[in-house]
Specification:
heterodimer; A: 452 residues; mainly alpha; 19 helices; 71% helix; 0% strand; B: 76 residues; globular
Chain lengths: 452, 76
């Protein structure tokens, strides 16, 4: 089947057919922007030598199509565009001027953390409007990790490295939370399809991912209408009593039977996986169509044979971010320790400290709302701290087990059960936002075992 | 002593069990646990300090990347 599709994608007519199919698959998410993507695909396919420039232009157009309506809705006018343009211009200047390149990642992160704290303090005094402070925080988060990858890449690339044509790796055109899908320009280049056969493979992968994203989106809509937000017209019997939505479970677990609480928790895990797969498959699918066959972001996490395997398959590029910026530097520095000690310390540096740092910045929005919602922020970030410690502990055990017994094969069904149960339980501490207190999360956890 | 050549690095990678059947002309897919073992393998076989060479995980996933890392070592 795959080889037939590749034969189809290798012909001009087949490629056009698949591209139209993908454009239709993108329409529910992107609307008219799907036509721009189709145009970019067509140009990139006919001018492979101009692929990076076309992709950069497409990234700018997608970004504008997202920011302009949001700015207009928030009454912010052109300010977010100026902010983003200023940031990107500063990164380009840093990339070109050798003296500026002495500024490393640490000053950048310190600057962003201090700026967010200052924004929160100013907002407490009512100096900045809430919507504006939140917009700055979200834009800074969307750009921060892309810039970090960019700086890492530029610090090691030669003087002749192209800058402007690689902007597609810097512009936040996909997703939220600022996790860069595709990492750095060097990473994209590594997966660039340079031969016709490789390009056909990339296009088939892109078509598969975009169609899967559409199917998952339709499943999510169906589940939302029948299960999570039903109306009398969209549900035929009381499914919510059997599979409770997570927000109701968090609000009052006692209204559901114990078995239903577990089903609700597992349902929430499936919903989270589907949402992540829709976002990741769409982003990676577009990259594949632009000629970069980068790895998938989500790859059948429910088919994992261990906790570590699940984490790798669930959100690949977030795992890579923690690996690149936290795990690996610590692991390499601990050369004099045994492999097990190195692994545990580096896992805690990444999955606990790095993960917490990432979310401490990402979750700063409550500080920008309701003048100084410090308690809300502490509740949210406190829950994430518990999540990080438990995750790092689970990953450490799982990794040690693999490091010590590389040939060990666990029965797959047992691995699936253990990893799914672990992440379903863990999700209690990452679900929702600040309205759910740490005490409420503990209450849900205890209720799963019939306590309280 | 100069940096090892391409063939020497490929030979070294071939002696690492998870990479025995890999096509080294492409970026090789290696999971994170195997990558950690590869780090130890390279450190022990070549006697290099990968931290001092500022090695990145992605660099260790290609032969060219490994050669680039080793070339950063001025006094190997």
């Amino acid at each position: 089947m795959t080889s037939r599709l590749q034969t189809l994608a290798a012909s001009s007519g087949g490629r056009i057919f698949l591209a139209i199919l993908c454009c239709a698959a993108l329409w529910p998410a992107y609307g008219y922007v799907a036509l721009l993507i189709f145009g970019a695909i067509a140009v990139a396919a006919t001018r492979p030598d101009r692929r990076p420039e076309v992709f950069s232009l497409l990234a700018i157009l997608i970004f504008l199509s997202q920011v302009i309506p949001q700015s207009a809705a928030g009454g912010l006018g052109y300010k977010p565009l100026l902010f983003s343009a200023g940031w990107i211009a500063a990164v380009v200047a840093w990339s070109r001027i050798e003296r500026l390149r002495r500024i490393g990642l640490l000053p950048l992160h310190l600057f962003v953390a201090i700026a967010l704290a200052a924004l929160a303090v100013l907002n407490t005094g009512g100096i900045r409007p809430v919507v504006s402070a939140m917009a700055w925080q979200q834009l800074a988060m969307a750009l921060l990790w892309r810039t970090s990858y960019w700086m890492k890449w530029r610090a090691k690339s030669g003087r002749e490295a192209p800058i402007v044509s690689r902007l597609f790796a810097l512009i936040p055109c996909f997703g939220s939370g600022g996790v860069p899908i595709g990492k750095s320009p060097e990473y994209f280049e590594r997966y660039e399809a340079r031969k016709p056969q490789a390009l056909a493979e990339a296009h088939v992968e892109g078509a598969k991912l975009l169609l899967l994203a559409l199917i998952y989106r339709l499943i999510l809509i169906g589940l939302d209408r029948t299960l999570w937000n039903p109306t009398p017209d969209t549900t035929f019997f009381d499914l919510q009593a059997l599979i409770p939505p997570m927000n109701e479970l968090m609000a009052d677990p006692a209204q559901f039977a114990v078995y239903a609480r577990w089903i609700g928790l597992c349902g929430e895990l499936i919903r989270a996986i589907l949402e992540l797969a829709v976002f990741g498959h769409t982003a990676v699918g577009i990259c594949c169509w632009m000629g970069y066959k980068i790895p998938r972001n989500t790859r059948s996490p429910l088919w994992s044979n261990s906790i570590f395997d699940f984490w790798t398959r669930y959100y690949f590029y977030f795992k890579e971010l923690l690996l690149d910026f936290f795990f690996f530097p610590v692991y390499l520095k601990l050369k004099r320790f045994s492999p097990v000690t190195r692994t545990v310390l580096a896992t805690f540096a990444a999955a606990c400290a790095g993960n917490f740092y990432y979310h401490a910045l990402l979750y700063a929005s409550p500080l920008m709302q309701l003048p100084g919602n410090l308690d809300g922020y502490l509740q949210w970030i406190g829950a994430r701290a518990i999540y990080c410690v438990v995750l790092a502990t689970g990953l450490s055990f799982s990794m040690i087990r693999t490091v010590k017994n590389p040939q060990l094969q666990r029965r797959r069904w047992l691995g699936i059960m253990v990893s799914a149960a672990f992440f379903a339980l863990l999700h209690i501490w990452s679900y929702g936002a600040e309205p759910f207190t740490i005490a409420a999360r503990w209450r849900v956890f205890a209720s799963l075992f019939g306590i309280g | 002593m100069g940096s090892p050549g391409r063939e020497q690095v490929i030979g070294l990678l071939r002696s690492f069990p998870p990479l025995q059947a890999v096509d080294f002309e492409r970026p090789f897919e290696i999971d994170s646990v195997d990558l950690l073992q590869l780090v130890v393998h390279l450190e022990q076989s070549l006697g290099v300090d990968l931290a001092a060479l500022e090695a990145e995980p992605d660099e260790l996933r290609t032969v060219d990347g490994i050669l680039k890392v080793l070339a950063r070592h001025p006094t190997r």
